[in-house]
Specification:
Blueprint (H helix, E strand, L loop, with lengths): L3 E6 L8 H14 L3 E6 L19 H10 L3 E3 L1
Parallel strand pairs: 1-2, 2-3
Helix pairs in contact: 1-2
Amino acid sequence: MPQRFTLFLSAPPYAGQHPATAARLAGAALDEGHAVTLFASGDGIYNFFVGQSAKGVPNAESEFAALMARGLTVEL
């Protein structure tokens, strides 16, 4: 039975594992057919800025964009 998951992200991209963990959790829940909403607040909103170009790490913007295309709802 599908459930609804809510995640809260206040960590900036590229400053630790929090955004990557949120993306993995959201992706896993979406894979199982659940509804996922992510609330980004404070520095967490920087994960959704377009045009990021950090080197040597996964691009937070593109990861979350791909999840949004799969059904992730994001509230800023």
